[in-house]
Amino acid sequence: MKSTKIIVEHTKLGKQRIWGDADNNIIRIDSRLKGKKHLEIMIHEALHILHPRMSEEKVVKNSVILCNLLWEHDYRRVENTNTIHLQDGTI
Ligand SMILES: [Zn+2]
User: Fold this and answer.
1) What is the pLDDT of residues 43-53, one digit of tens each?
2) Rounded Cα gap, residues 72 and 52, in angstroms
3) How far is the CA of 15 from the centre of ligand 1 (A)?
4) For residues 49 and 25, is the Cβ–Cβ distance under 8 A?
5) Which among 10, 16, 69, 86 is least buried, having the fewest CB atoms inside 10 angstroms?
6) 82 alpha carbon to ligand 1 midpoint, in Å?
7) Full 3-state SS string of 19-83
8) pLDDT value, residue 1
């Protein structure tokens, strides 16, 4: 099986009225998404990459199932944002 490295980019997608999309192993996720919804969209877009012929209905159903499974077992995203400088000028 060919290995697939999926790259995730966070960007504002509001104008396109979508939370995420996937193309050529790159997932774009709206940068304002947090928590459980972020997890759902990441799984949803990954399923599109891994199963390109899967129907949208099935992608939605499976992403919600996987999202609920991981969330109920306490998988959470660590917030690692450190783009604002500390008082000594360092990051
Ligand atoms: Zn979709």
Assistant:
1) 999 999 999 99
2) 27
3) 17
4) yes
5) 86
6) 31
7) CEEEECCEEEEECCCCHHHHHHHHHHHHHHHHCCCCCHHHHHHHHHHHHHHHHHCCCCCCCCCCC
8) 56
39 Cα–ligand 1 center, Å = 14
Q: What spacing in Å lies between the alpha carbon of 34 and ligand 1's midpoint?
A: 18
SS3 91: coil
4: tokens are 């697939």
Angle between helices 35-50 and 56-72 (to 10 degrees): 130
Rounded-to-integer distance, Cα 63 and Cα 51, Å: 12
Where residue 39 falls among pLDDT bands split at 50, 70, 90? very high
Confidence of residue 55 (pLDDT cuts 50, 70, 90): very high
Instruction: Assess whether pLDDT exceeds 90 at residue 7.
Output: yes
